[in-house]
Amino acid sequence: MATEDNIARSLVYVESVFTDQSWKVYSREDREGICESGWIYVTNKPEGKFAAFIAQRQSADKDFAVNSRSFEHVLLGDRESRLAAGFVVLTEDFRTVLNRAHVEEVAAKLRGASPRFGRWGAYFWIDKDFHPVRSTAYTAQEDDKF
Q: How many domains, in total, are found in the chain?
């Protein structure tokens, strides 16, 4: 499991996940069996290997989709000390980091939340502060019912 010191130092690394060429994307082959969707980036730094699960939203008024298997892969890597630290990074465009948090912090916020199931498996909807939300994007609201 990542130490507080590693987490604090590595936040600087995570800020550059889209601009520092040392960050590499898991290929489709690398992701097979781990996740069907969901971007995972990895880098090696002097403190060890770091991973970032990238959660994307389509526009500023939307929430972020977190693929459960991808998230759990990074979480277990952190917990089993296969990583110096694991993170969740929020973006809209794969150029800008909107927010980032250590994977354990996100796991604590998701505790008790139920995933939804979709084309790519189980996933959570989270807001910009990593809190679970009930997405209404595809759910009929009271005024839609007839």
A: 1
Does some domain include residue 144?
no
What pTM value is reported for the model? Answer: 0.83
Is the predicted pLDDT of residue 36 greater than 60, yes or no? no
What is the strand order of the sheet 121-126 is part of?
A: 64-67, 121-126, 116-118
And the tokens for 140? 């009929």
Do you know the residue count of the chain? 146
Instruction: Output the six-digit token pair for 116.
Output: 């939804």
CATH number at residue 34: 3.40.1350
Whether 10 and 45 have beta carbons less than 8 Å apart is answered as: yes
In whole angstroms, how far apart are CA 67 and each of 20, 34, 47, 76, 135? 24, 10, 27, 14, 14
What contacts 101, CB < 8 A, 6 or more positions away? 87, 88, 130
What is the mean predicted confidence (pLDDT) over 49-75?
88
In sequence order, the 6+-apart residues with CB closer than 8 A to the CB of 112 are none
- The answer to whether residue 109 is domain-embedded is yes
Compute the CA torsion angle 95, 101, 103, 104 (nearest 10 deg): 180
CB neighbour list of residue 135: distance below 8 Å, 6 or more residues apart: 63, 116, 125
Q: Note whether residue 124 is domain-resident.
A: yes
